[in-house]
Amino acid sequence: MAKDFYGELQLGILGGGQLGRMLIQEAINYNVNVHILDPDKNAPCRKLCNRFECGSLSDFETVYNFGKGLDMITIEIEKVNVDALEKLENEGVVVYPQSRIIRLIQDKGLQKQFFKQNDIPTAAFQLISTKENLYETAIPLPYIQKLRKDGYDGKGVKKINSTTEIEQAFESPSLVEELVDFEKEIAVIVARNDKGDVSTFPLVEMEFNPEANLVEFLISPSTLPFEVQTRADEIAKKIAEDLQIVGLLAVEMFLTKEGEILVNELAPRPHNSGHHTIEGNITSQFAQHLRAIFNLPLGATTARTNAVMINLLGEPRYEGLAKYEGVEDVLAVEGVFVHLYGKKYTKPFRKMGHICIVNDDRELAIKNARWVQEILKVKA
Amino acid sequence: MAKDFYGELQLGILGGGQLGRMLIQEAINYNVNVHILDPDKNAPCRKLCNRFECGSLSDFETVYNFGKGLDMITIEIEKVNVDALEKLENEGVVVYPQSRIIRLIQDKGLQKQFFKQNDIPTAAFQLISTKENLYETAIPLPYIQKLRKDGYDGKGVKKINSTTEIEQAFESPSLVEELVDFEKEIAVIVARNDKGDVSTFPLVEMEFNPEANLVEFLISPSTLPFEVQTRADEIAKKIAEDLQIVGLLAVEMFLTKEGEILVNELAPRPHNSGHHTIEGNITSQFAQHLRAIFNLPLGATTARTNAVMINLLGEPRYEGLAKYEGVEDVLAVEGVFVHLYGKKYTKPFRKMGHICIVNDDRELAIKNARWVQEILKVKA
C-alpha cells in the first residue's frame, strides 16, 4: 500500500455494529481514519468514526459509492454486496478479506464444497434446491437443514427430526447436514497477512444458549487435551492458507464424542469467540485484524490469564429502550470488564454487550462469570 | 445522579487531547455520550465523540455555554475557566473534579499553601509577586522559580543559580522553591468517588527528558523499598481525602537521597504517569476516573505484569505533518503496545503518542523499551 497505515490511510468498514465499534477502539491507537456504512442510523459506531454513512450493505450502488476513494475496505458482517466489492477491487481499492472469500463464505453450500475439495474434516452434507429434495436425501434423519444464504446467529437453521417435519422445512436452496453428536463446540481464530504470515489464537470452548443458538459462555485457554488443541490449530491454519485469506478468520468446529474435529462454519472477520482476547491475550483479535489487513507483523496471541466471556443478551420478553440492571454490582468484582455496545433498543436475545472475567484462578474466573450471568440483565 | 452513567447521561470533557481520547476509548465500553470542547479544530478527539465543539477553554461564555444542559463535566487539562464551572455547578451540573479543586491546583502558590496547611511534606517555598522579591528571599541559591499560573510540562519553570541570573527570572507572581537534590521522581495516582472510597495505583518511578522536562520513561511496579511505597501511598490518599476530590488525582513526588518523600505537584485528572495502566494493571486509570466520577465501586489497581511506558515525543528539529518511523519494527516485538494520539502536526518534544511495553521478565521489559526508544521516531 502506498500510504502508511497510520495517518492518511482511509479505511472503510462495512457494518457499524459492535465488531466495528471494538475495531475502532483499537484503530484509535494507530490514527486510522475510519469510514462506516450501516443501514441503522443508530448503529453503535455512528459517533465514533471520521464518516458515518447510513445505507444498505446489500445494495450495489450504495456499497460502491461508499468504497470509491477509500484506500482499503474491510467488513464486520459477511452479508454485503460482493459485486460492488469486486468492482472496487478491480479499480484498486484493497478489500480484505478478499471479495472472492466473502462470496464463498456467504454461501454455506460453497463453504461445504470448499471443505470437501480441500480435505477439511466436516459433517456429511448434501446441497438441495427445494424442500422437495429432502424426501430423497441420503443423509439419515434426524438432520440439520441450513439455508445456503443469509442465515446468521442461529437464524436459517432447522433440525428436521422425521419425514413429517419436512413440511415445515425451508423452501429455499439449502444444505442438509448430518446431525453431529458433539461433545463441545470449539473455535480457533486465525490471522493471515499478505506476506503469508499465519498466526492462531489459543483454542476456546463455547457454550451456546439453546433457545437463541448464540454463544453464551466461552472459556480461554482451553483445558482440552494437547492433541485436540494441536489438531484444531492445524485445521485453522490450513484453511487460512487454502483460502489465502488476508485478515482474521474464525473457524468454528465441533469436537465429537469420539474426539474427532469437524469444521462447522467460517467467519472472515473478528468474531464473538474472540472477544475475551481484549483482556485475556497479549494481542486482541481486533488488533490482530488490523495488523493482518495492514500487512504488519502479526502479534503474539498468548493468553495472559484465564478469561471467561459471556454475552449480554436482551432478556426474553423485553423490547424497547434498553435498561441495564446490575452493572454497578458486577463492577465491584475484581477482573470484571464490561463492554456495552451502544445499542439504544433491546429485544429478546439481542447482543447488547459482553463481559470478560479474568482471573489467574480458573475456577474463580468461572464462578465469577456464572455470578455475573445471574446479576447482569438488559431489560426495557 | 438521576441518570444511569450508561445510556442517557451526557458527559462533557474540557479538552480534546490524548487524555480525552483515551478516556473516550474506555467510555465507549459504557455507552457514555461524550461532548468535547477544545480550541484546536484538529484535536485528537474531534471524530470520536457525540459532539465536538471548537472553542476556548479559558473563555467564560464558551465554557458556560458548552456545559449548560450537560449532566456532568470533567477535565483533561487544568487550564480552564473555573468561574464558568462554578456557575454550572451552582446550576446543578455535576463538575468532577470540583471547581474549587481545579482553582486550587491552577495556582501553584495555593497548592503549596494547601500542602503546608495540611502537613503534607513538600520542599520549602516562598511566594513572590515580582522578580524584585527574589533579591530578598530566604530560600538559598540555587533555587527553582515557578510561575504560579499557566505552567505545564516543564514550561514556566526556571532554575536560578546565582544573583546575577535574577535578571532573567520570570516577572509574574511566582513561587520560589528550594532545589531538591532528589534520587528519583515518583508518582502515585489516587482515585476517590463521592461515597468516599479511595484507591491508589501502585507507585511508579519516572525518568525525565532533561531537555524537555517531560516524562520519558516510567516503570511499574516499582522496586523501591516497601516503606517508601507505603509512605507515598499514604500521602496520596491523605491528599485525596483532605481535598475531598471526586475523580483521579496524580500526585508527583520527589524521593530525596535521604529517603524523604516531598510532594511536588498535583494533577486532578488522568495523567502521563498512569498510561501504562491500560495494559499493565487490572483497571486502567481511564476506567478508574470514570468509575470515580460516576460514583461506582473503584476497580482493582493491581499490576498484571511489569509495564514500561515511554512517551513518543516529536524529534528535535522536525516540525510539520507528522511522519512515524519504526512503527512496523516495534510491532514485531511481543508485548509492545503503540498508542498514537491522532495529532496531525509534530514539533520538537510534542507528545505524539506513547508506547507500553509489558513483560513478565522485568529486565526484558526494560531492554525492549530502551530498544523501542531507539527505533521509533516522529519526524516531519
Automatic annotation (TrEMBL), chains A, B:
EC identifiers of the protein: 6.3.4.18
Domain ATP-grasp: 112-295
Top EC group: ligase
Pfam family of the protein (one): ATP-grasp
Signal sequence, start to end: none
Keywords: ATP-binding, Ligase, Nucleotide-binding, Purine biosynthesis
Keyword match Transcription regulation: no
GO molecular function: 5-(carboxyamino)imidazole ribonucleotide synthase activity
InterPro entries, A to Z: ATP-grasp, ATP-grasp_carboxylate-amine, ATP_grasp_subdomain_1, PreATP-grasp_dom_sf, PurK, PurK_C, PurT/PurK_preATP-grasp, Rudment_hybrid_motif
Catalytically driven reaction(s): 5-amino-1-(5-phospho-beta-D-ribosyl)imidazole + hydrogencarbonate + ATP = 5-carboxyamino-1-(5-phospho-D-ribosyl)imidazole + ADP + phosphate + 2 H(+)
Oligomeric form and interacting partners: Homodimer.
Similarity remark: Belongs to the PurK/PurT family.
UniProt xrefs under NCBIfam families: PRK06019.1-5, purK
Protein name: N5-carboxyaminoimidazole ribonucleotide synthase
Gene: purK
